[in-house]
Specification:
The complex is a heterodimer of chains A (about 110) and B (about 110).
Chain A lengths: L1 E4 L4 E5 L4 E3 L2 E4 L3 E8 L5 E7 L5 E3 L5 E5 L4 E6 L8 E9 L7 E2 L3 E6 L1
Parallel strand pairs in A: 2-12
Antiparallel strand pairs in A: 1-4, 3-9, 5-6, 5-10, 7-8, 8-9, 10-11, 10-12
Chain B lengths: L4 E3 L2 E4 L5 E6 L6 E8 L3 E9 L2 E5 L6 E5 L5 E5 L8 E8 L9 E2 L3 E5 L1
Parallel strand pairs in B: 2-11
Antiparallel strand pairs in B: 1-3, 3-8, 4-5, 4-9, 5-6, 7-8, 9-10, 9-11
The chains are: A mainly beta (about 110), B mainly beta (about 110).
Amino acid sequence: AQSVAQPEDQVNVAEGNPLTVKCTYSVSGNPYLFWYVQYPNRGLQFLLKYITGDNLVKGSYGFEAEFNKSQTSFHLKKPSALVSDSALYFCAVIMDTGRRALTFGSGTRLQVQP
Amino acid sequence: KAGVTQTPRYLIKTRGQQVTLSCSPISGHRSVSWYQQTPGQGLQFLFEYFSETQRNKGNFPGRFSGRQFSNSRSEMNVSTLELGDSALYLCASSLAGYLTDTQYFGPGTRLTVL
């Protein structure tokens, strides 16, 4: 079985400050981890993924995420937040021995204040 | 390249009716997956198709069905609609459906059941 937890329903940050959106996972095999962002009335946009190799993954729009196997975490980060980053963020996992279906977290709403 | 397209974008149906949603994947992508997004249950996997064959299925009743055509376009059908079927239905395509492939999402079809 596989699951993803996003412990924060909402994260508030001031523009220009660093942001972190948290994600932890639980799988019985090796995880493949993804971050997506959803803007109002839109589908999901891919940000980045971790498959293997370097634990620090860089993605679109200045976002990055760090895979931490010991803490089973894959937190999304950005050094300097923009108002336009305000959106709903989803972490997702596929297990290396699992079916081809993303298991999503419940989502975290990021609010960046000017 | 054009992204994933879904039609129609909005649908209003009444209980007991049936509905068909359409998804056109990114050119060259052969795997298509469907997800349901609701405020209460979040994002849930419905099924995945590859080369006109259903490879994976989520935990949804048999009223939910789909198919894929030789050009990789996919349709999803829901029969005997219930109020709880109101949701955003998202289609995602990936190159070959490998676990490590990125799934690219369409804008979704918003279904409202009255």
